[in-house]
Amino acid sequence: MKIAHLILTYTSPQLTERLIQAIAHPQFDFYIHVDKKFSIDPYLYLKKHPNVYFIQNREDVRWAGYNTIKATFKCIKEIASSGIKYGYINFLSGQDYPIKSAEYMLDFFERNKGKQFIEFQSIEREWIEAQPRITKYHFTNFTFKGRHCIEWLVNSLTPKRKIPQELQPYGRAMFWMMEPDRAMYVVNYVESNPQLERFFLFTWGSDEFVFQTILMNSPYKHELVNNDYRYIDWSAGGAHPKVLDSTDLDKLKQTDDLFARKVNAEKSSKLLDALDNMFLLTLATSMHLWLTY
User: Fold this and answer.
1) CA–CA dist 102, 138 (Å, integer)
2) What is the pLDDT of residues 47-60, one digit of tens each?
3) How far apart are CA 169 and CA 167, in angstroms?
4) Cα–Cα distance for residue pair 86/72, rounded to 1 Å
C-alpha cells in the first residue's frame, strides 16, 4: 500500500526535511504545499529526496480562514490526479513529527483499510463553544481596513447563521488520515454546492469542521474513527498547543499516536534527536530479527 503524506508548511525547510528522512520508505510519497505568501525557493532542495513532490497550485493560507480549506482541496486534487494509487492521504503540518517508525505506520494503514481517522464532536451537543464559529459572520479570510468593525456591525444586524442543507455540524481537529476517494468526496461535495462554500467562507476555523461535517452527514460516517493519532499537549491553555521538548519524551514513548504536534527546530531539537535514535534502534532490531530468521 502506498501512502501520500501531505505537508502544509511555511516554517522550516530543514524541519520538513527531517520529518521526511525520519519515515523515508519506498511506499511513502511526500507532497509539500508551501504557503503562497512565502517563497518556495528555500524548499526546492528537497527534490533531491526520492518520492518528494511539490504542490503546484499553491494557496495564500490565512490562519483560521477558509483559504486553509482551499489549500487542502487543491492538494487533494493534485494527489488524486497524480495517477498513483494511494491507500491513504495523511494530512500533516510542517510542525508535526513522527513518533512511530515507517514500518509501524505502514502496518497500521494495512490493518485499518476502510477506516477514516479524524477527530469529531457534535458542535450542537458536545463542542458547544465552537458554535459561534458557524452562527456568526467572520471575515477572517479577508484583509481590508475596518474589517473588525464591519464584522461586528453585520453580526449586530443579522440573525444567527445556519448551515445550508440542514447539515448537522461536527468538528474538532484539523488533521486527518483518510482514503483519497473519501477526501475527494468532501472536495466534490463542497465545490459542487456554491451556497455551502459561501457559507464556509464566512466562518472561523473552518479547517476544524468542514471535513467532519461533510463526512458525518454522508453515507461514509460509519467508517470514521474518532482519533487522528496525533499527540498534542493543550495544557498550557490558549489557542495554540505547547511546543514539545525533551521533557515530553517519556509520554511520547507510551502513546499509541503516530505523530507529535507541535515541534520546532530549536526548542524541540533534543526531543527530535531522541526520536530519531528510537527509529534507528527499531530499524536495527528489525534487521537483526530478519537476519536471524
Assistant:
1) 40
2) 999 899 999 999 99
3) 6
4) 17
| pLDDT (0 to 100) of residue 150 | 95
Distance CA 52, CA 62 (A): 25
The radius of gyration of the chain's CA atoms, rounded to the nearest angstrom, is: 20
Distances (CA, A) of 282 to 18, 46, 155, 182: 17, 25, 55, 32
Task: Please state the separation of Cα 153 from the chain's center in Å.
Answer: 33
The answer to whether residues 91 and 4 touch, using CB atoms and an 8 Å cutoff, is no
Three-class SS of residue 248? Answer: helix
Domains of the chain: 3-292 (3.90.550)
Per-residue model confidence as pLDDT tens digits over 170-201: 999 999 999 999 999 999 999 999 999 999 99
| Mean pLDDT of the region 11-23 | 94
What is the enclosing helix (H) or strand (E) of 30?
Answer: strand 28-34
Q: Return d(Cα 211, Cα 215) in angstroms, integer.
A: 6
pLDDT surpasses 80 at 283 = no
Q: Which helix (H) or strand (E) holds 92?
A: strand 88-93
